[in-house]
Design brief:
Layout (H helix, E strand, L loop, with lengths): L2 H4 L13 E10 L6 E2 L16 E3 L5 E6 L1 H8 L15 E5 L2 E4 L10 H4 L4 H12 L4 H6 L2 H5 L1 E2 L7 E2 L3 E8 L1 E10 L13 H7 L6 H4 L5 E12 L3 E8 H4 L8 H19 L6 E3 L2 E5 L6 E5 L5 E3 L4 H15 L5 E4 L2 H9 L2 H15 L1
Helix pairs in contact: 10-11
Length: 364
Amino acid sequence: MSNMLTKFDNWLTGNAGPAALVIREHLMPVEGHDGVLFPPTFAAGDTFPGGYNVDVFDDGKNVCLIDSVGSQANRIEPLFMDGDYARLVPQVVIEAGDVKVNLLEAGHRGGDAIVRCTSLQKELQAAFRSVLKGDAWALAKIAPTSLVFGVWDSRDTQAKLPRLIASTVRAFDVRRLTRGAVYTPPLDYSGLEVFSEEDKTKAEGDKKSPLSKRGFVHNPASGSPGGVIATGGIRRDATLSLNALRLLRAGDDAEKAVILRRYILGLALVAFTHSPWGYLRQGCNLVLDPDKPREFVEVYGDGRRLPATVTAAEALPYATAAAGAFGVGENRTLAFDRELAKKDVQGDPAKEKKGKAGRKAKNA
């Protein structure tokens, strides 16, 4: 057996290896430390009023979410669609008319509705049932990144696998800015008798007016979110949980379990050493802060933090060797099945009835 294949075996079994790999990177806007960056905006819900996600503490300090765990995962996962990385995982493509969707682009991965609505439905369901019995081998043959970035088959078997990789970008002690703008139409459409002067007067400033929505009248926008200045810096924290990786099993077959863990570790190392920051969205283009060193460490159960040295260039050969030993699942092109989708929308009445009975008994 090659040294390449066994070089990280001490991470795969027992408790002697590190609990996790941790990366901490300090970032800054391309404009500089005091540059304005735009966080994501979120819809209102529960007690959240909508807008930027900023947590304020009793001492007045705050933390602003710049990129969530889910968003970071969705930025990294499509890496496996291209070049040498594409050979590491099965390429499962769903065709719906002129639209093609790679499973690597689906938000819920192996648990997404889009793959349930194909001929792969039963095979994937069986794979999730095997996960419930402690065997992730079959799922790794179909959707191995579901084992890296986590999956929950919440609409069917309820099988759940945790994320091995968690990455988040946050800004600290931010100052919020606002901005204003006004749209000025190139023509006086009321003067051209497209509509009346009275209609024009009513529509200006009314964002819900059809004339305003379609761009026929002046449309001012004031006090809208204008980004933030991160006076306390911007930081990406990423973790690859080796403790969680060691929980992966292939039933009672210890030898197959090691082969499976090597394969998933290879994929995880490729994903983990890839940097999913840079251009996150309009107004949020980040680079490494040259004044603060990047931290990459192995963290052990006793608290020791030792330097980690795995690079992206080293991760790919290991992942390739591990994928070869595991045997990457087959590439598939599947047709979206409208009838399966209609049936899935209706749900399973028997399961729903059983669930309601269970909840009723619990609350009795």
